[in-house]
Specification:
- With 972 residues, this protein is an alpha+beta fold.
- Helices cover 23% and strands 27% of the residues.
- The protein contains 19 helices and 51 strands.
- The strands form 13 sheets. An 8-stranded parallel sheet has the order 14-13-3-2-1-18-17-16, covered by helices on one side.
- β2, α4 and β3 form a beta-alpha-beta unit.
- The radius of gyration is 31 Å and the shape is globular.
- The two termini are 34 Å apart.
């Protein structure tokens, strides 16, 4: 109906390509010689976004029930809306919190029929200029029907027997508990029996890597601790344990000349875990592979993946760009075929005589046992990284492909999130919109870790499975209210590539709105607002086009420790202590050990520099980390953190413990005060204050601040450099308009305000520079956002003396109606309804209006007397429930609105005298689905596999206004 957005794109498309692909403008932020070209090309793309920067999606092939026709339709729809690509993701819908109705079975994943559909998708994507990725299985938790018990994830199991010695023993040892009747021995150990009355090892199954912890990205440092030690509470001393494995006969009988006394015999082995592939198509059920085994991954790859890449031919690496596996939700695993040898190699000591600790025994003492468990978890995490994700990346690279697995939580598996990310091409995370399953920021936002990994390892793209939700009504999302604030928050954590979750492929045979996944926000051609979604997609595109080119700016590098599980949490937890005023990255031990010092700054392998290295506050470091801290300080770094008190590891033995405490005393002193500083070599060590306070005390201005605002977290920000420009993205996180005095740590340059909703770029006429910062007054709409550019030197005539960058609007008229509203009769409504005033459709007595879903066109006339020295805007205020409105005035298509307060300039279309106004609004599928609830299918207007719950309620719908005409002074 309204083609303004598409025409605008086409009009400058060739110009944008000219700039984007011009020599010296290759998107590299460090290329100073191309800085002006980069700035110019970004301005062009900001005005009319190009698909290269557009969003992508999880493209669900539910139960493999897709057709070539549906594939083509979806890809053409993505292309039309400016997507840059999609991730093919075969999956089912049934899970314990469902189920909705599963779609009919399609062909088996990676089988011949499925492969032909996949190849059709690649050919169509090539035709349309889209990039595709492929999830290398159906569902998640890597595995499937071909995975054998030998390849399956494994866990330690044991049995215990007490015997009397002093003679030759012939003792049948019980087979430890097993799953699937599969058990293999690791060792048989004997030690003198002794009675102990003690507390059990706390959280043993989690400490041994045998299970996940609950929640999302919880603080797992408590696993480094245990009950206070008690003298003599041990079960065995290491020197008293005898390895009698060679005396175990094939029938499970122990033949052993046992010394005198009572002996405890532990038969220790392993068995497969119960983990299975989750949410797969019906024909892809099966075991989860052993993530600690490179052989298990390679066998899976050769059976299920390699032939898909071979058959794609030259499209592999050109059209098909990334491979994916989804998040770890398969519980714990703590053994593998070669685990004993790999543990010994990684830690420098043998695991065998410490294995009784996994069975709950205290060996030597409680501290030693707990330190072994920490080494065990760290080894598991190391093998997950090296034998699974590194091998995945190496296999993909042979085909010129990158990987983008969700390899770092938020489920708390025995892994180190940032280390796993080191192998990724696109560093993938996820974020959620508020829903009953995840209602709070701490369990919705997870991008900070992924962004940090990208920054420290020097990777460009930070992606996220975006707008995920669960246990909330489907199709009940208002773009500006439900999606935008969460997206903007994650942009401020470092996100620069949206992957919609979800975009479900739904063949026409499945009806409308069709088949859908059980979770997520539905974004596809079956949603009511798809045809009007261009400005929403353009917003994402504009923001990403800038952020993807930026080099992140932060003052603080926070080391989050070497414990496992280890998953960095969202920015708001502020573990780095940098808030308010400063930003930070998180680093792991691997990168910490590679840090160098340049001009007093610590520098990561990715090239970013930080003023301050912050240590964790739990006072536990590895010896390697402590030695590196000492080295960095001597070389000129500034390090902030408390004196470490414990080395929770057996690596290096007692000599390492001695060295650890000697070094800590040398750096912090034997009894450091609550606060203090030490100048060591060229650098400084400090403790007892937050990093924000420390930087303030050192005279470093806040990088960003809203002056005079009490709660700084109401505004989120992120800071990049692009060439020689400083660029800030700032988000108002409140559902109310605000005017903020935003202070940026930049001077000598003129601020520009880039509006990602409209594409407008204006030079700030109101700003002041003081104490190393530029203060810019900015007016934010509810959940509003802006990019602030500092590129050009301040011209002599431009001193920022204006009173405001956003002059006030004056309300001068209300368009009161009456309104003629045109509905689509195919969805149960009368063709035309007369509304004397603007009212909610759900209050209408006629069921066809009350339960209507889709587009409706409002039209009315009004008289107006315009003035030549004024400019005019139309403001709709309340538009329900998708929050989308398309405006036409006197036959002129003015654009599509999707953000509060739904305001658009009408100056050029407004007439003196009579004016004809048309507003097309869209609501979601909710009301029509509720109207169809409980009816036989033949009486319904809608068809879907999603079950319409009894707790779904009608949603306020329609143009609710008031519809107002606003004016302000014309610009020169």
């Amino acid at each position: 109906m309204l083609k303004l957005q598409s025409m605008k794109k086409i009009s400058v498309y060739l110009l944008s390509l000219l700039f984007f692909f011009s020599p010296g403008c290759n998107g590299t932020a460090d290329d100073a010689s191309g800085a002006n070209d980069t700035y110019a090309s970004l301005k062009v793309n900001f005005n009319a976004p190009v698909a290269a920067n557009g969003p992508r999606c999880w493209w669900w092939w539910l139960n493999s029930n897709v057709t070539k026709e549906a594939i083509t339709r979806d890809l053409e729809a993505m292309h039309d809306k400016g997507f840059s690509g999609a991730m093919i993701f075969d999956a089912g819908t049934e899970l314990w919190w469902g189920p909705d109705d599963n779609p009919p079975n399609g062909p088996v994943f990676s089988g011949p029929e499925w492969t032909e559909l996949y190849l059709h998708a690649l050919r169509e994507a090539k035709r349309l200029g889209l990039k595709l990725g492929l999830s290398i299985q159906s569902g998640w938790n890597l595995g499937g029907p071909g995975v054998t018990l030998e390849e399956k994830a494994k866990q330690i199991t044991w049995s215990e027997t007490t015997v009397s010695g002093g003679a030759h023993l012939t003792q049948q040892l019980p087979v430890p508990a097993s799953n699937y009747d599969y058990y293999r021995d690791i060792c048989v150990l004997a030690y003198p029996s002794r009675q102990t009355d003690r507390e059990p090892i706390s959280h043993l199954t989690a400490k041994s890597g045998a299970r996940e912890l609950g929640g999302s990205a919880p603080d797992c440092r408590f696993l480094l601790n245990d009950h206070p030690s008690v003298e003599g509470e041990y079960d065995a001393q290491l020197e008293d344990i005898i390895d009698v494995t060679t005396h175990l006969q094939p029938d499970g009988t122990l033949q052993w000349d046992a010394p005198a006394g009572n002996w405890t015999i532990l038969r220790i082995g392993y068995t497969p875990t119960l983990a299975h592939v989750a949410t797969s198509s019906d024909n892809w059920k099966g075991h989860v592979i052993d993530y600690l085994s490179s052989e298990a991954f390679e066998n899976y790859w050769n059976r299920n993946v390699e032939h898909l890449l071979q058959k794609a031919g030259p499209m592999t690496g050109t059209v098909l760009k990334q491979l994916e596996t989804d998040s770890w939700e398969c519980g714990g695993m703590n053994w593998s075929t070669h685990f004993a040898e790999e543990f010994d190699q990684y830690n420098g000591y043998s695991i065998i005589k410490y294995l009784p600790v996994v069975a709950g025994k205290i060996i030597e003492n409680r501290e030693t046992s707990n330190a072994f468990l920490a080494d065990l978890r760290k080894t598991i995490a190391h093998l997950v990284s090296e034998n699974h994700y590194r091998v995945f990346a190496e296999h993909a690279a042979k085909h010129n492909l990158g990987i983008q697995p969700e390899s770092a939580g938020p489920h708390t598996a025995p892994l180190d999130g940032i280390t796993n990310y080191s192998h990724s091409d696109i560093v993938m995370s996820e974020f959620w919109i508020p829903s009953p399953h995840r209602p709070y920021p701490e369990n919705r936002f997870f991008v900070k870790q992924a962004a940090s990994a990208a920054h420290i390892y020097g990777k460009q793209f930070v992606g996220a499975e975006s707008f995920t939700s669960l246990r909330k009504p489907h199709w009940a999302d208002e773009l500006w209210h439900d999606l935008k604030p969460s997206m903007d928050y994650e942009f401020c954590e470092g996100l620069n590539m949206i992957f919609f979750h979800t975009f479900t492929c739904s063949p026409k045979e499945m009806g409308i709105p069709g088949q859908e996944y059980f979770a997520g926000t539905h974004v596809n051609p079956q949603v009511t607002w798809w045809d009007h979604s261009d400005p929403f997609m353009d917003y994402i595109n504009r923001v990403q086009s800038v952020l993807q080119q930026g080099k992140f700016v932060a003052d603080v590098l926070f080391y989050y420790g070497d414990h496992v599980p280890n998953i960095a949490v969202y920015k708001g937890f502020n573990r780095a202590g940098a808030l308010p005023g400063y930003d930070y990255d998180v680093t792991n031990e691997e990168v910490l050990l590679q840090l160098v010092v340049e001009d007093g700054m610590v520098v990561v392998p990715g090239g970013l520099k930080y003023r301050l290295l912050v240590l964790p506050d739990h006072r536990v470091l590895s010896l390697a980390a402590l030695e590196k801290v000492g080295q960095l300080v001597k070389q000129g770094a500034t390090v902030l953190g408390p004196k470490p008190e414990r080395l929770v590891s057996l690596v290096g033995g007692q000599g390492a413990q001695t060295r650890f405490h000697e070094m800590a005393d040398a750096l912090w002193g034997k009894v450091p005060g609550e606060t203090g500083t030490q100048h060591i070599g060229k650098g400084m060590l400090a403790w007892g204050v937050t990093s924000s306070d420390f930087l303030q005390n050192e005279g470093i201005p806040f990088d960003f601040e809203v002056i005079g605002h009490t709660n700084q977290s109401d505004f989120q920000y992120i800071h990049y450099t692009i060439g020689d420009a400083d660029v800030y993205f700032v988000s108002n996180q409140a559902n109310e308009p605000r005017t903020a005095a935003c202070a940026f740590r930049v001077t000598g340059r003129e601020p520009e305000l880039w509006d990602p909703v409209t594409g407008d770029i204006t030079t700030a006429s109101a700003f002041q520079q003081e104490e190393g910062r530029t203060v810019v007054p900015i007016r934010f709409d509810p959940f509003g956002s802006v990019l602030v550019w500092f590129q050009k030197s301040i011209p002599r005539e431009a001193r920022g003396k204006a009173a405001s960058n956003s002059p006030d609007f004056n309300r001068i008229k209300e368009v009161v109606g009456p309104w003629k509203v045109q509905f689509d009769p195919e969805w149960g409504a009368p063709g035309e309804v007369f509304f004397p005033t603007l009212t909610d459709w759900t209050d209408h007595p006629e069921e066809g209006v009350k339960f209507y879903s889709g587009e409706a066109s409002y039209s009315s006339t009004f008289d107006f007397a315009r003035k030549q020295d004024k400019r005019y805007w139309l403001q709709l205020n309340r538009v329900k429930d998708a929050g989308i409105a398309a405006v036409r005035l006197n036959g002129h298509d003015l654009g599509i609105l999707w953000t509060q307060p739904f305001r658009i300039e009408i100056t050029d279309a407004l007439l003196s005298g009579s004016n004809e106004l048309e507003v097309v609004v869209v609501n979601t599928w909710q009301n029509r689905l509720i109207g169809d609830r409980g009816k036989p299918q033949e009486e319904r207007y809608t068809t879907t596999n999603i079950r319409i719950r009894d707790d779904w309620h009608l949603r306020e719908s329609g143009l609710l206004g008031p519809v107002e005409i606003l004016e302000r002074q014309a610009r020169n």
